[in-house]
Recover the amino acids of this structure.
């Protein structure tokens, strides 16, 4: 597997592409599935693993290249793991600000001690669309949800995610720092190990 020099990332998210490319290193070039199609597959899986595999297979089918998919989200303890696999669409597809506002409203009366959360990332790599043995790597990042947004970096729920070991929000971390400790960084470290990079 370490002969891969190009992978298609099953995402149209420019922030995710930049973040994952930085973590993957220079030996592998990540290309967006957007170069091949603007159509996104319906995420019909009931878990991060199922959705990651579904997206990777779709990107490989569209591009004819090996594909990497990231399915990630925020699992909040007080909400029974929600928004979970629906993190990006939590506020009916209205974007990051609406998702964050909905999360803050859902946790309005929840005290700090019960605001535990974790970012979850599952990376799925397929050599081709019908690959019977996808490589799966998972990363978890523990923290808690703040009462208001802090910081200007990152995307998604980063401004609301408190990182105890750094005493700041994820959005207050410099991108290079985040890329060393985040859920994606942890999953990517495992993937690099599997690929011998």
């Amino acid at each position: 597997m370490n002969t891969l020099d190009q992978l298609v990332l099953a995402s149209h998210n420019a922030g995710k592409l930049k973040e994952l490319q930085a973590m993957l290193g220079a030996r592998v070039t990540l290309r967006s599935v957007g170069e091949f199609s603007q159509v996104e597959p319906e995420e019909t899986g009931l878990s991060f693993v199922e959705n990651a595999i579904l997206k990777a297979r779709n990107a490989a089918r569209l591009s004819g290249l090996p594909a990497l998919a990231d399915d990630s989200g925020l699992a909040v303890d007080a909400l029974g793991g929600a928004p979970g696999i629906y993190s990006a669409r939590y506020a009916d597809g209205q974007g990051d600000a609406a998702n964050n506002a909905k999360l803050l409203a859902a946790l309005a009366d929840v005290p700090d001690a019960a605001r535990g959360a974790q970012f979850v990332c599952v990376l799925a790599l397929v050599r081709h669309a019908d690959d019977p043995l996808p490589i799966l790597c998972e990363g978890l990042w523990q923290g808690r949800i703040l009462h208001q947004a802090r910081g200007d970096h990152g995307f998604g729920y980063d401004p609301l995610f408190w990182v105890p070991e750094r005493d700041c929000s994820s959005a207050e971390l410099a991108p290079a720092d985040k890329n060393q400790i985040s859920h994606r960084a942890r999953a990517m470290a495992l993937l690099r190990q599997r690929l011998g990079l």
